[in-house]
Amino acid sequence: MSALPPSGETAPARARPPTLRAALSSSDNALNTVRLVLATLVIFGHVFPLGGFDAVVAGPFIYAGWHGAAVEGFFVISGYLILASAHRLALRAFLWRRFLRIYPGYAVALIVTAFVTAPLGTI
């Protein structure tokens, strides 16, 4: 028996596997989980030296440089996700959404710094 279809019939079309872009274009991917893990490593990288933990606890983590690699990985993945978002939207809509996402938090941090944190420096 041959693998070819009888004459006059066409072979069934094979389903193409999804491309990497298609697989990662939805929010059903694991990139946000990876970003969360990397952000947690960055936080630990700052907490250990600032928290006064001894070198026995902090040593393997800090001296292995994991927090530095976590920063780079976080920025690479975030850049990829932002670029994917920019490709889905028109430039003006993308920039407006980025502004609305970043500016309110920046304004609150600026106000807290100016009116709460800065006066504490004079105490």
UniProtKB/TrEMBL annotation:
- Does Membrane show up as a keyword for this record? yes
**Keywords attached to this entry:** Membrane, Transferase, Transmembrane, Transmembrane helix
One Pfam family name is Acyl_transf_3
Extract the InterPro entries matched here: Acyl_transf_3_dom
Q: From which residue to which does the signal peptide run?
A: none
Which residue intervals define the domain Acyltransferase in the entry?
29-119
Transmembrane residue ranges = 36-63, 69-91, 103-121
Single GO term (MF)? acyltransferase activity, transferring groups other than amino-acyl groups
This chain belongs to the protein called Acetyltransferase
Biological classification of the source: Bacteria, Bacillati, Actinomycetota, Actinomycetes, Micrococcales
